[in-house]
Specification:
Blueprint (H helix, E strand, L loop, with lengths): L7 H17 L5 H14 L4 H14 L6 H13 L3 H9 L4 H5 L6 H11 L4 H9 L11 H16 L4 E2 H16 L4 E6 L1 H4 L4 E2 L2 E7 L2 H9 L4 E7 L3 E6 L4 E7 L4 H9 L2 H13 L2 E4 L2 E4 L2 E2 L5 H7 L15 H6 L14 E5 L10 H10 L4 E4 L14 H16 L5 E4 L2 E3 L10 H5 L5 E3 L8 H13 L5 E2 L17 H11 L2 E5 L8 H10 L3 E4 L11 H10 L13 H14 L2
Parallel strand pairs: 4-7, 11-12, 12-13, 14-15, 15-16, 16-17, 17-18
Antiparallel strand pairs: 1-3, 2-4, 5-6, 6-7, 8-9, 9-10
The chain binds one DNA strand through α2, α4, α7, α9 and α14.
DNA sequence: GCCGTTTTCGGCCCGACTGTTTTCAGTCG
């Protein structure tokens, strides 16, 4: 078969741009339908082309937010790689509508007006026109809009795309800590996609209550990480922080805190669904109140909003409009794995290879953080640049671990490895060496460009090895840095289940598995482990990002093996192998 | 274009801000 199917990313971009064109032409309702479909496509863990091969448009039509019409468009994109309707649209309006609307303050209608008046086709042409003072002469535009376009272009150039949660959460936490120390400050919370622990973040949204709003805002705008004050009023301020991210603070009356916290936590789809549900209960919901017959109900906590609508409280991590409200209504909301539930970290690198600290130091830090075991998973010899271990060094490392375990009580260091899967699916270390370990973890670090079927076969061959327990960072992606390798993920899941292999949720910048994959794994009954992939003591911080990602994928404590104490964990892990056919 | 606790048609979330206007459209969250 000719392999020219469009990727999910490409499909989402096309759907989104079609929606933008509809919006530019003031077509009602369709823009939201296309945008919502694009969101769903982006969040999928599986390629639409694979889904299509399996069961045609029926499966695609079944996706939430995707109906007959868009399913047909997707079919065309995965079978031919093109979409005629889109091509015609672009032929008639050959300009970068999506790129232009990425500029803050410039929406589809204004972008279309600029194209029609000035024939600007891309960001470069737009910049030239703005610099030449042509934009302000277009009807409906003025000097301020022209300036805003130029500054928006500058920002885009500096910051392509979104910021990583890993980089932003510490900044947000620091701001929250500082605001809590302002005299007269009461509640302070971070909201938005940070509260949902989404892997990438657009800006930092903060809300608080305080006796003296002016004092709180004065303090906020004066913090050392603030490089520029963008806006300031009586109850709110927007600032630019070091590194370029924007942070917004609103100081609220106590009565509105929970409502606004909920409103800004979102996401948009979740809010829309909830407001629609409110209407069905003859209520209206906004950030200003939950009104029944025009009268506001008392909302002290977020729980009150959900209760009034007959729902249990829904954790922020799964407020994505991906079926959580229906699940809540039907009483099948998962009891998500908690941030304190993980008992051991199963991917820890030490100075035996590319880690920065000794085994003892890594163990000490893990213990300090409340863990009761770690697995030492240094690389193997195929990864020469890290000084990967061969059989002999692995055995020596085992002796050091035995000695350390002998002198400690209440903490266990497990002997393990991050064994390379070679190009043909064999393992980088011999069976005798692997047998001496408490558990065997494997991963891919080479030959990323293999075709989907070859890569999948390679990995499944490794799964068939009787000693393999855990598959680390299964898709090879790195947030904002590297795309995953081609993989038939549903097949990998089935093989993991059949051969008794657990999949990792890696909390480092990889975030691999990602949320959608976790949800698929949970749905298939594949067991997970959550690890930090620490290369230094400080990187145990990454564990919480892994837990967050697992929560976003609806994983419960029972889905995650390393929520168990060490003996029970090992028993359960090896039990996966024994149960296999 | 999507969807169903008004289920195959007739609805579709809510409010504020901004800039360009003289009363509002567009954008954003």
């Amino acid at each position: 078969m000719v392999k020219r199917a469009a990727t999910n990313q490409k499909i989402a971009a096309i759907l989104r741009e079609i929606g933008l064109f509809d919006e530019a032409f003031d077509v009602p309702y369709k823009p939201q339908a296309y945008e919502s479909a694009a969101e769903v496509v982006e969040g999928l863990g599986e390629q639409l082309s694979d889904l299509y091969q399996k069961c045609g448009t029926a499966c695609i039509d079944d996706l939430p937010g995707i109906g007959e019409s868009i399913a047909k468009k997707i079919e065309e994109l995965v079978t031919t790689g093109r979409l005629k309707a889109y091509d015609q649209l672009k032929k008639k309006y050959p300009f970068d509508l999506a790129g232009m609307t990425a500029i803050h303050g410039l929406g589809p209608k204004k972008a279309m007006a600029l194209y029609q008046a000035l024939k600007v086709k891309d960001l470069k042409a737009l910049e030239n026109a703005a610099k030449a003072g042509k934009v302000r002469r277009v009807p409906g535009f003025g000097r301020k809009t022209e300036d805003a376009i130029l500054s928006g272009l500058g920002f885009l150039r500096e910051h392509e795309g979104r910021f990583r949660l890993h980089d932003i959460l510490p900044v947000a936490d620091r701001l929250v800590g500082q605001l809590k120390r302002v005299p007269g400050a009461h509640e302070v919370e971070v909201t938005g996609s940070i509260r949902r622990m989404k892997e990438t973040i657009g800006d930092i949204d903060l809300i608080m209550t305080a006796d003296d709003p002016k004092r709180a805002l004065d303090a906020f705008t004066a913090y050392p990480e603030v490089t520029q004050v963008l806006m300031r009023s009586d109850d709110r301020a927007s600032v630019r922080c070091r590194g370029g991210i924007q942070a917004d603070l609103i100081v609220l009356e106590p009565d509105h805190f929970a409502l606004v916290l909920h409103h800004f936590t979102g996401n948009r789809e979740h809010n829309i669904e909830l407001r629609t549900l409110a209407l069905k209960h003859d209520m209206t919901l906004s950030e200003y109140g939950l009104l029944k017959e025009g009268k506001p109900l008392p909302i002290k906590k977020e729980e009150n909003i959900y209760q009034a609508l007959g729902l249990p409280w829904i954790p922020p991590e799964i407020r994505e409009g991906q079926g959580e409200i229906n699940a809540a209504r039907e009483g099948r909301l998962p009891d998500l794995v908690g941030y304190d539930d993980v008992k051991g970290d199963l991917q820890v690198q030490t100075d035996w290879t590319d880690g920065a600290a000794s085994i003892e130091e890594m163990a000490k830090e893990a213990r300090k953080r409340g863990l009761s075991y770690i697995a030492v998973t240094d690389h193997t010899k195929a990864l020469a640049m890290t000084g990967g271990l061969d059989e002999k060094r692995l055995a020596e490392q085992g002796k050091e671990i035995d000695a350390l375990n002998a002198k400690t009580k209440g903490f266990r260091i497990l002997k393990s490895t991050e064994c390379d899967i070679l190009k043909d699916g064999r393992l980088d270390v011999d069976d005798a060496a692997l047998k001496a370990l408490d558990l065997v973890c494997v991963s891919v670090h080479s030959f990323f460009a293999l075709s989907e079927s070859v890569q999948t076969e390679r990995i499944i061959r490794a799964f068939k090895h009787p000693l393999v327990n855990v598959f680390l960072h299964p898709t090879g992606r790195i947030v904002n840095a590297r795309e995953p390798y081609a993989l038939d993920f549903p097949r990998v899941l089935r093989a993991a289940k059949e051969y008794g292999v657990a999949l990792e949720v890696n909390g480092s910048h990889r975030l691999d598995l990602r949320d959608a994959h976790v949800r698929e794994a949970v749905g298939t009954g594949v067991k997970l482990v959550i690890d930090s992939d620490s290369h230094s003591p400080a990187e145990y911080d990454f564990l919480k990002f892994g837990i967050a990602q697992a929560r976003r994928g609806w994983a419960t404590k029972a889905d995650v093996l390393n929520t168990k104490p060490v003996e029970a964990f090992l028993k359960a892990l090896h039990g996966l192998k024994k149960n296999k056919k």
